[in-house]
């Protein structure tokens, strides 16, 4: 098991330095708090004197001095934000900190201390500015165990013996799977699989067996760090769509061909990554089954490679749909009319993605008509009369975009309050079902989108 981003880790003490400045090390404490970005607190004693108060000062040429005036004076007082900081812990294990943003600092004539917030802390390797490449990644996401619904061990069985005329439990047997991997054959990878890891904890009063599913992918060619982050984000969105829940990264590790296990088959050793979670610092409640997900791995197992290929292909032409949909899919404190506008824009972007229609004149009516006609028959019944739906869409969108007339006070087809809430739900069903249909998800799963269990209701008090 790797670094669980929902659990605060022990502080890592060590020595750190900037690339190409290995001779200028400074002590530091790396703090990895649950759900938060990695934080490095540094302190160094030196003979810099007043220079400690100007950590971002320009370096003078040999034998020359510099004069700071105006804006240069204040810029020199601010901390630099290095792209990379290297270090090692007390055992000598390497650490790389990426995209470090300067925070607070405290300096005296003989000491300088700084605080950095780091986009990522990568343990077990020193990465260079010109070599931020990965040959594979290991990923565990919220709800992934339940979504895949596989584990390394099977249900236990009990064995009994008869002693002194009594039947007593003598043994528990827990079968461990002979094969811990589920090959996926996903397009674009040299190898891809779900790996069902397991661990055993034997305490004085408790014996526990734990299983966790990882998504392992190995690339045909090395991928840059930014490309890897985009890929992780796409998998978060996919599982969010499948489970209808905000999904964060729970564990993350990267593979490099130059970091290998010293024994055995000399396979690549995972370098664990610490990152901030997007939605929640805590782990979500565990679920014993995925009955209330839109779809599970079992629902799409036979078409999973094709589904992933479609998902990757649609990110560019469907980018506007995806960004607007996921903007309202998680709690962001949006007002009701803002949520409606995001969904209305998603509906219009959906029409453009399907038809290639770039004519702005009359696009609102055409988008509403297209959304209605392309919806499943069962959903059309919930949307009501097509002409009425188009008018509600156009008038309500125009009002909440520009205000003015007609308004909710002068026209009942300009929606507000409860009516706007109900109409927004219908737009979400349209977009969500369209995404699932485009991916090739089975129809019986798509129909869950407008299931009663998802329908929000606003409670009013007299």
Order of helices and strands: EEEHEEEEHEEEEEHEEHHHHHHHHH
Percent of residues in beta strands: 25-35%
Radius of gyration: 28 Å
The number of distinct β-strands equals 14
Shape: globular
Largest sheet: 6 strands, antiparallel, barrel
Placed side by side, the strands forming the largest sheet appear as 1-2-3-6-5-4
Q: How many H/I helices?
A: 12
Low-confidence stretches: none
Report the structural category. Answer: alpha+beta
Q: What assembly state would you assign to the polypeptide chains in this entry?
A: single chain
Q: Mean pLDDT, nearest integer? A: 86
Task: Please give the alpha-carbon distance between the first and last residues.
Answer: 53 Å
Proportion in helices: 25-40%
């Amino acid at each position: 098991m790797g670094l669980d981003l929902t659990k605060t880790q022990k502080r890592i003490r060590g020595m750190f330095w900037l690339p190409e400045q290995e001779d200028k090390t400074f002590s530091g404490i790396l703090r990895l708090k649950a759900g938060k970005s990695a934080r490095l607190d540094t302190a160094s004693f030196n003979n810099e004197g007043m220079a400690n108060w100007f950590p971002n000062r320009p370096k003078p040429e040999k034998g020359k001095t510099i004069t700071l005036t105006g804006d240069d004076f204040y810029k020199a007082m601010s901390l630099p934000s290095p792209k990379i900081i290297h270090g090692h812990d007390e055992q000598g294990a390497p650490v790389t900190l990426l995209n470090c943003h300067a925070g607070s600092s405290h300096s005296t004539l003989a000491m300088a201390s700084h605080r950095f917030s780091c986009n990522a802390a990568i343990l077990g390797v020193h990465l260079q500015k010109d070599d931020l490449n990965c040959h594979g990644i290991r990923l565990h996401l919220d709800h992934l165990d339940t979504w895949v619904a596989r584990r390394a061990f099977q249900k236990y069985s009990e064995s009994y013996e008869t002693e002194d005329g009594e039947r007593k439990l003598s043994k528990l047997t827990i079968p461990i799977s002979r094969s811990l991997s589920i090959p996926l054959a996903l397009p674009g990878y040299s190898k891809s699989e779900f790996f069902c890891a397991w661990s055993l904890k034997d305490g004085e009063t408790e014996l526990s067996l734990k299983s966790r599913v990882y998504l392992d992918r190995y690339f045909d060619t090395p991928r840059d760090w930014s490309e890897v982050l985009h890929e992780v984000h796409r998998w978060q969105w996919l599982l969010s769509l499948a489970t209808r829940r905000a999904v964060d990264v729970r564990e993350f590790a990267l593979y490099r061909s130059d970091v290998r296990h010293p024994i055995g088959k000399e396979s690549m050793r995972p370098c664990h990554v610490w990152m901030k979670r997007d939605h929640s610092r805590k782990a979500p409640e565990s679920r014993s089954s995925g009955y209330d997900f839109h779809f599970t791995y079992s629902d799409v197992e036979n078409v999973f490679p094709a589904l992933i290929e479609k998902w990757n292909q649609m990110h560019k032409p469907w980018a506007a749909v995806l960004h607007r949909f996921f903007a309202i899919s998680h709690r962001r404190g949006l007002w009701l009319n803002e949520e409606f506008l995001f969904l209305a824009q998603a509906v219009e972007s959906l029409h453009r993605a399907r038809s290639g229609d770039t004519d702005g004149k009359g696009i609102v009516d055409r988008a509403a008509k297209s959304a209605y006609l392309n919806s499943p028959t069962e959903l059309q019944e919930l949307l009501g009369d097509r002409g009425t739906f188009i008018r509600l869409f156009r008038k309500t969108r125009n009002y909440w975009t520009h205000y003015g007339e007609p308004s909710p006070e002068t026209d009942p087809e300009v929606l507000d309050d409860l009516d706007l809430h109900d109409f927004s739900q219908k737009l979400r069903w349209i977009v969500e079902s369209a995404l699932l249909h485009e991916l090739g998800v089975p129809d019986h799963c798509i129909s869950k989108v407008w299931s009663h269990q998802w329908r929000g209701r606003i409670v009013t008090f007299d």
